[in-house]
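Hi R.,

Here's the chain you asked about this morning:
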Amino acid sequence: MARYSGIEDIDLAKFIDHALLTPFATPEQVVHCCGEAERFNFPAVCVYPTHVKQAAELLHNRPTAVCTVIGFPSGATTSAVKLYEAQEATEHGATELDVVINLGWLRSGRTDELHRELAEISDATGQTVKAILEMSLLTETEKRLAAEICMDAGVAYLKTNTGWTGGATVEDVKLLYELTRDRLGIKASGGIRTAGQAAELILAGATRLGTSRGPELVRQFEQLGEPEFEA
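And here is the predicted structure, written out as tokens:
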């Protein structure tokens, strides 16, 4: 058993980006995802670009934002393609853009190009950009460098992972919190399967949680009763 001081003050639903990022997602699943997000008052749904227009229509005049992924999951598409993808998604109703950074550029020292790509997307769309760092693949030095470049480029959030190559860790969230000093949001994403994990990530500094298990996690969290449970 583990005690988490302060979890009684957490409204878990307010942290959830409700994700539907299976390649086999159907229009019916988009309807279901958006319905759950509205019912639980999640701040956003996160869908593939091909589903943005439908999600935006379903959530029109609702408080839940429509988020989509750009350059997902590798980040290795060209800057021009990423920019077009982001602009088209914005035109279709997305107000939050989770952009995978180009890890090859990061590792090979092409930091100016990495910075320019993110800055162009932020400036051209005027939307909330969350830079996906894919931290499970990076060294400590690369994590710090990537975070600094993204912050300087004007993104609104740093996101830990796509969920395709690894999951969010408390250590990575703490590192991002140390680096951002509350200047940016932190989205922990990938492998969040229990209410205990969710609580740990929030207490470490996460301001959003990317997960397809939002309703399940909220129900788990509500059933805990006392702020003592298995991690």
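One quick note: The first strand starts at residue 2 and ends at 3.

Cheers,
M.
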